[in-house]
């Protein structure tokens, strides 16, 4: 029985980056800025606003610098961005992001597809980014993709996940986000993986990043909560997917996660009405229904 639920949870909004990166329709810079400004007023304390990746790889986020410079910064909100290399870091620092997020995969094939480098060759690249970020006075976060399964290799050995995680922490990251990139995880697997990782890392240094491809994201979050994890990435409306994980759907929807947590008496500091308004805004801009159940219910209820 799950009984060890926390009294409060931190939701980190990744929609402007992870949500929009896979969209075919380009969302204008003006609309991205407007959406992020709306998110800043919902009570969110952390928003991942863009990615400083080469535009030829992620054309949807080609306006990263303009977006980062154009938003209204609200005191107390951390505005972060994904940074793949030294060139991306220079742009991120120019745009004055608060935090630099680095990323890599636990599986070799996905890392090659995503970063175009082996895991071994990725380590020194990220080490330079993390160290230079810290020198510039920015906090640093790490993402590990394919923790619970790889679209090319299947199940990923937990020892590979541990090795990548340890190496990222040694570089100096402050928090590690564990990604279920293809939405393959199940609650028992989450329990097994967290048992192994929590023997090595404190719970307050770990976050979970679930995609909802098979409808198990909220169930996986419940297990994570019970095991002491209190930080979760989510994407408003359920926007998202991974360009290098065919068939992966969006992240767990921020609005659905908030509904569940509110119903359980777990505080988040988020305003549900403002979140739903921002969710409807971005749904209108992408021009298609988003997978969030909360949005669907609101649609039915007018």
UniProtKB/TrEMBL annotation:
Keywords annotated in UniProt: Lyase, Metal-binding
Pfam families: HMGL-like
The UniProt record lists the keyword Hydrolase: no
Entry-linked InterPro entries: Aldolase_TIM, HMGL, PYR_CT
UniProt KW Lyase keyword: yes
GO molecular function: lyase activity
Domain Pyruvate carboxyltransferase: 9-276
Record-stated family: Belongs to the HMG-CoA lyase family.
Protein known as: Hydroxymethylglutaryl-CoA lyase
Protein species of origin: Bacillus songklensis
């Amino acid at each position: 029985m799950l009984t060890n639920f926390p009294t409060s949870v931190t939701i980190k909004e990744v929609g402007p980056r992870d949500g929009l990166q896979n969209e075919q329709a380009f969302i204008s810079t003006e609309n991205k800025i407007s959406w992020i400004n709306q998110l800043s007023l919902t009570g969110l304390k952390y928003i991942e606003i863009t990615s400083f990746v080469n535009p030829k790889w992620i054309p949807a986020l080609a306006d990263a610098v303009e977006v980062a410079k154009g938003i209204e910064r609200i005191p107390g909100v951390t505005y972060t961005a994904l940074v793949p290399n030294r060139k991306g870091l220079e742009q991120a620092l120019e745009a004055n992001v608060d935090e630099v997020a680095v990323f890599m995969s636990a599986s070799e094939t996905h890392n090659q597809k995503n970063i175009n480098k082996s895991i071994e060759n990725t380590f020194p690249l990220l080490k330079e980014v993390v160290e230079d970020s810290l020198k510039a006075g920015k906090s640093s976060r790490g993402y590990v993709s394919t923790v619970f399964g790889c679209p090319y290799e299947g199940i990923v050995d937990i020892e590979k996940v541990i090795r990548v995680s340890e190496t990222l922490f040694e570089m100096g990251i402050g928090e590690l986000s564990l990604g279920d990139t293809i939405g393959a995880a199940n609650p028992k697997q989450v329990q097994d993986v967290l048992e192994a990782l929590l023997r090595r890392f404190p719970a307050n240094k770990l976050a979970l990043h679930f995609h909802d491809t098979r409808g198990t994201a909220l169930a996986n979050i419940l297990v994570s909560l019970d095991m002491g994890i209190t930080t979760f990435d989510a994407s408003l409306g359920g926007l998202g997917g991974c360009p290098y994980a065919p068939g992966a759907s969006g992240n767990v929807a921020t609005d659905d996660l908030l509904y569940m947590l509110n119903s359980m008496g777990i505080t988040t500091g988020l305003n549900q009405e403002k979140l739903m308004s921002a969710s409807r805004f971005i749904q209108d801009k992408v021009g298609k229904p988003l997978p969030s159940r909360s949005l669907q219910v609101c649609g039915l209820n007018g």
